[in-house]
Amino acid sequence: MAGDTPPKEGWLEPGPRGRPRTAEDISPRRLARFRRAAELRDLRAAVVLEDIHDPHNAAAAFRSCDAFGVQQVHLVFEREPMWNPLREGKKTSGHTNRWLDICRHRGSAAAIEALKAAGHTLIATKVDPAARPLPELDLGAIERPAFVFGNEHRGISPAMEAAADHLVFLPMVGLAESFNLSVSVALTLYEYFGQTRLGRAPARVEIEPRPSPAAEALLARWIGRM
After folding, report:
1. Which domain, by its residues, includes 25?
2. Tell me: the pLDDT tens digits for 81-105?
3. Most distant CA pair in the chain: distance in Å?
4. Which end of the chain has the least Cβ crowding within 10 Å, N or C?
5. CATH of the domain at 168
6. 109 located within any domain
């Protein structure tokens, strides 16, 4: 992509929109809004988007990540050309791409290695007889889930399927074989949100802000992106 040659791997850090800001530069109301969002963020889970062809599909998924408080997104480029999520699909994402932590990986093997090293359990979506319905999985018992979604047409790669700890599908009764990408991400994260924060799993977590050093660090990074 123009202006990003060669495309880099690793975590992307959006720069400030203007001059660098501090907490004193932010209105109390806006600062309180961002602090509450930071304290409600889920810093354990991740969403993995493998070989997504259309950046706008990924951007729609970013919006769901933000809505359900999942902070980490991993973009994997195995067969598709690498693109920049900070530039592509900003309007589709509702500009939530600025507030997520997004990491790009060149190749599925590198992504799998990084995710496993970080302690993630890979939960991959696939229409397959070996897959189980997502609601049957006790997501509250998984310490660091990483929800994996594949290419719009090909699905997840053989490497990702082999590395997955769980293969799941979203139950449906219509004539279509599967949901589109952004809907799959939204429904999956809602199930995770419901099990872990709405009390549908044994480990109930109230939807209340949770002050922590990690939340304060996230807030500081957000201020740096304003």
Report:
1. 19-225
2. 999 999 887 777 778 999 999 999 9
3. 56
4. N
5. 3.40.1280.10
6. yes
